Amino acid sequence: MLWIIFLFNITFEQSLFYSAYTDSTLSIQDSNNTFKLDWQFFGNTTTNIISTCGSSSIIGGYNLFSNGVAATLFIDLQPHYKMKISFSLFIIDTWDNEYFYLYADQDLVFTQKYSNNNGQDEICGQPGSNRKDQIHQIEIEFDHTGLTSFIQLTSNLNDSAHDESWGFRNFRIYIYECPPQCYVCSKVDQQLQCEKWIRAYSIFTQLLENEFQENTLISVINGATTKQLCSQIPMMCGYGVCGRDTIIQMNNLQLPFHTRIKIKLKYLIIDSWESTDYAQILVDGVLRWTSELSLTNQNLYRVCGGGSNDIFVNLELTFPHIQTSTTIQILNTLNQDFSDESFGIRDLTIYTQQSNCGDQIIQENEECDDGNLVPFDGCFSCLYSCVDGCEICEKGNCLRCGQGWILQRQIQKCQRIDIPIIQFKLKEDKCNDKQNDIQMNQIRRDCETMDYSSLVVCEEDILNKCQPQCKICIQSVCYQCQVGQNLIMGQCYELLKNSIQLEDLSKQEFICDFNCEDCRNGICYQCYEKFQILDNQCVGICGDQIIQLNEECDDGNNVEFDGCFCCRYSCPQDCSFCQNGICIDKCQQGYYFIDNSCQTICGDSIIVGFEQCEDENNIQYDGCYQCRYSCPLFCNDCLNGYCYNCDQGFILSSNICIGVCGDGLLSIQEQCDDGNQIDGDGCSKKCQLETNWICNKNGDCAYVEYPIPIIEYYKQENQFQYVKMTFSQLVQQNLNLQYKDTIQLRILDLNQNLFNIIILETQPAQFQILQRVEYIFQIEIMSNQQNHPILEVLLTEQLYNENLAPLLYLLDNFQLNQPNHISEEEIITSKTFQNINEYSVNSLFAIQGILFLLLGNFFSFWVILDALQQQSYLKYINVQYPQTLIIYFESSDAVSMQSILNKLPRFKYNSTLLKFPFQKSYGKFEYYNINANIMEGLILEVLIFGSLLIGYLSTLFTINILKYLEINLFLQQWPKFILFIQKLKRKLHSKLKLFDDNSIKRTLLACSWDLIFIAFLELQVQHDFESSRAYIRLTIALVILMIIILVILQQIHGLRSWQKQNFIQFWEQQKEMFNLIKKILSLYIIIYNQQNQILQTLVLTLINTFYLFFIIYCQSKNGFQEYIKNIITEISLIIFTASTSLNWNIVSSYFSYQQRITISWVQMSVLVSVLVIFLFIEIYNLISIIIQTVNKIISFNRNQSNQSKLNELQNLNQVKVNPIKKQSNLNKVQNQQQPVINQRMFIVCQ
Fold it and tell me: Signal sequence: where (predicted)?
């Protein structure tokens, strides 16, 4: 059983990282492992590798592991500097002074000789006096820093496993981990030290094959660029694919600022490397590592090569490096074929380290490091600088001080000697003539007289550590004087009697700087924060970007010539006069005032500044490039841009190394060199490949037909033209890249803003895979052209056939058709027609809604909807309409039943029940992205019929509720409310009668366009009959068509009564049947004849013509408006379909695109006029109904007024009637009202 434990502490540094085969009962691999542990066993003749030895279950053992057997483990590790491996080793049977080996990568970390004479007893081997088995606990520590480790357990046994064998168990790996946050380390590293190493790149480090990825930063020259496997270990290159002349190259790696670089990788030596074979690593063209790896221990068994042993070698290189853009090359000196000598790499990791100025460690880019950032102390910012007051210095050591300063040679510093002017007693001895005295304030050299009673100080006094009068002296500074002496500024003096009193002096001249925190007798020992002691004064720290009193500027850096250097204004380079760091003078000759500084310009023919040369061009390798000397190409000896000797195979001519054609040596300037200068043999006299020939490096040439790009016109759809590019042969790429990105397309003599080209990959070119390659170019030209546009196709990368022959040519021009472009004015006009269409449709539906509420009649709505749906299917006629018509047809979707659902995206896409797979259509349906899946189109129809059913059930339920309320005793006390309920119930009963068979049929007929369309389309497209969904969809399509046919057959029964009726009466009754047949025929022609545009147009025109004839001949006596609407609809359809013939492919070539656009205006006008006429008719109907309603109201009011007058006259006559008669009449009225009251009570009770 295998298992892994990470970071289990054993000691302070050591941790258990990996453990395997430790259980009492072993298995080859634990199924619960989080990580795959890739143990491999070589040389074992059986699949079983587990045996029992004594009471232990072991890997290997008796009759299993012996001659030629090795157990290997490849494992990735945490950052560490040391490993420890422990395991139980079982030595079985007759070992006769033979060795057991343990390898970790290239290192033999353990070897031990064993003999059966040292065995303990028979444990698991054969019985016999000379067959003693042994069990050893092996534990070995060794240095190791690799990201991974290839561990191998093996022996040099030479007999069969029946005679001598070995096994192991309890295998454990311990690692000594690096400090936290460290990628690399050594035993002595602290965290602050190893954290300086930053991992910049980590490539080819994955352990599993499916996770191992190639990297675009890596290019392999003369070798495989895909990953390889070596005993299930993924790597770059490998056996038989990389070797002689292979270069693994990483170009322009971008690194952070650094001073050192560390490169680690695992290098696999495969097969028979010889002593002359070296592996090499170049960094920026400099050889940084080379090694004769064949000297590495060769006792490893074959891992992935042919017949020799293979070796994993951990490499680690560390060297100074500062370039932020670097190139790394891995080379070799192998001289045999790949099958004999090869190599591979993995675990390539690059680390960088940036030096820290101030750590008192002088690194590569530092001149010094004194552990501080104090200026004027000899080392500032890790560069040598002069101490304060020094005039001349070398490497921080002052050689001469400036005026007003004196050199203290013991400490190599300058001391200011501006001592206050005080009357002091002079020494009796004059200064020695050999001494260099220092005069202050015009002191005479003989020291006899002095002006202003100044003090003479001789160099001898300063060269002594302190004056004799000094009692305590530290580094030439006196801190306490003897009795009778006064300490003033670090020296002892005796004051004259008539001089200023010390108390007064200390209060005035010897007061310290006001920024001093610790002042004693005029000497400052400690300054406040942000200040430092310099010449007994507290000065600001230069570089803290705070301008103190002693600073002119502070830009936070120590860059010279940037206007501020060492906190003093400095002039830009080559500027003779500046003010506050800004150059204000004219620059010297050859310099130009640019960005507030004097700069040179390369190419002005004037050599100044850092320029080495000037040749007034920017040509590389001509001796001078970017004003720096450059050697010509292939020159191996040049000075100041002049070549004196060329590489082999080149001759020098006019400072250029030219390849010698015909010498049999292939140079970079030559495509071939067959050793002669004869044309027609594949290699021309100028050493260039001839057409349909290929040559190798040895000059051998063979005739091979080159592949040719084939560019042909594909099709034209509206404003888009499509051009197809194929090749005459199967081709492949030799570079792993997106070949589409290497194709450059443009329209000659046309501004790039006036065209747009998209490359569609039908069958893209693949890396090292031969196949048929095809690309389609979608071209849109956004302006009209007088001449045919010319498409230029440029292939910037080659493709090759199976013989590695390249394309014959990479540039081709192709003539396009005239572009189908419409102007902005034409677009606006098309959208105007589109808006009229939409507004008319919306207005018609709104008016029909009002009429339905007023009249309860919805018949006119179905007539209008049927006509509009016919128009919406005209766009599917498979001709190339002008773009103007395509814009107009966008509005026709509004009258399609299917379009209603498309306006509900939330309802459609948020419901998982309404998501169906997309079934690709064909022809015009594919152009409009129509989903041929019938389930998609059936959604709305289901919703419509479901809504009809819900409306019916809701009405029925409401009627039952009203019946209950009508007999409710509580409500009987409000007779008027009961009457209202009865009236409402009667209205609902009348509405309920509408939900009959006729209403269902009317709804079915309204949806028939969409139903027939989705059924025919489903039957026409291809299906995957391995899926049960295909059968379900086909069944639904057939059921829909059967229902439509049954509706037609139901109406055919009217033929029996034809003899009793005339034809007009028969047509009046069966017109819905004929309309349904027309729909079936029209949609069948549109869907099933997409490839025959002529037949589509002619048949549709004939269908509409015959239907118009029947309408006119069989004029309906009832419904004149319907008659007019049908005639207008059919006439518009005939005009449109007939004029569509001008867009046939065989006819459209005789008309210009503008003429076809003009015809489209007529077609749109015809279609829009139908809607406008319908709109006027419905407006007329609405106005008529409103007028009738108003007249009824007026008539009712008039009748009410007349009735009121009549009642008044009757009342006047009744006043004159006899009271007896009046009483009689009153009784009569009461007798008449009594039955009415009784009748009302009966109704209420009922």
Answer: 1-15
At 1068, list the tokens: 């009046």
pLDDT tens digits, residue range 14-23? 788 888 888 8
Residue that is written with structure tokens 């000598």 in the block: 341
The secondary structure element, H or E, covering residue 82 is: strand 80-93
Cβ atoms of 40 and 232 closer than 8 Å: yes
Which residues are CB-neighbours of 760 under 8 A, at least 6 positions away?
Answer: 775, 776, 777, 778
- The CA distances from residue 723 to 717, 793, 809, in Å, are 12, 11, 18
In whole numbers, what is the pLDDT of the chain averaged over residues?
77
3-state secondary structure 877-912: CCCCCCHHHHHHHHHHHHHCHHHHHHCCHHHHHCCH
Q: What is the pLDDT of residues 151-208, one digit of tens each?
A: 989 998 888 888 889 999 999 999 988 887 788 887 766 655 676 788 888 888 888 8
**Residue with tokens 């230029």, as numbered in its chain:** 792
d(CA 622, CA 620): 6
Percent of the chain past pLDDT 90, that is, above it, reads 10
Secondary structure of residue 542 in the 3-state scheme: coil
The token pair at 1076 is: 């349904």
- Range 420-447 average pLDDT: 36
**Token output for 18:** 């990996």
CA atoms of 115 and 1149, how far apart (whole Å): 99
Integer angstrom CA distances of residue 810 from 729, 780, 806, 807, 871: 15, 23, 10, 7, 49
**Please, are residues 249 and 218 in contact by the beta-carbon 8 Å criterion?**
yes
Following CA atoms 614, 619, 620, 626 in sequence, which dihedral angle do they give, to the nearest 10 degrees?
Answer: 40
Decide if 736 contacts 225 (C-beta within 8 A): yes
DSSP H helical ranges for 745-879: 824-855, 859-872
Handedness of CA 195, 197, 203, 204 (dihedral sign): negative
Which residue in 693, 675, 670 sits closest to 804, CA to CA?
A: 693
Counting Cβ atoms within 10 Å, is residue 1065 exposed (0-12), middle (13-18) or buried (19+)? middle
CB 248 within 8 A of CB 316: no
CB 855 within 8 A of CB 1185: yes
Res 10: pLDDT: 34
Is residue 238 within 8 Å of 248, Cβ to Cβ?
no
In the structure encoding, which two tokens stand for residue 516, read together? 């001093």
Angle at 570 between CA 565 and CA 574, to 5 degrees: 120
Q: What is the largest CA-CA distance in the chain?
A: 176
Helices 1093-1113 and 1120-1139 cross at an angle (nearest 10°) of 160
Nearest-angstrom CA–CA distance, 890 and 929: 13
Of 210-214, 229-233, 624-628, 694-698, which range is least confident?
210-214
The 10s digit of each residue's pLDDT in 226-256 is 888 887 888 888 888 899 999 999 888 888 8
The most confident of 382-396, 444-458, 1031-1045, by mean pLDDT: 1031-1045
Burial zone of 1159 (CB within 10 Å; 0-12 exposed, 13-18 middle, 19+ buried): middle
**Which residues sit opposite 58 in a β-bridge?**
51
Buried b (16+ CB within 10 A) or exposed e, 140-151: eeeebbbbbbbb
Q: What is the DSSP track for 1091-1138?
A: T-HHHHHHHHHHHHHHHHHHHHHT--SS-HHHHHHHHHHHHHHHHHHH
> Please, are residues 103 and 151 in contact by the beta-carbon 8 Å criterion?
yes
How crowded is residue 474: how many other Cβ atoms within 10 Å of its Cβ? Answer: 11
Helices (H) and strands (E) in the chain, counts: 20, 59
Choose among 418, 356, 408, 366: nearest CA to 387.
Answer: 408
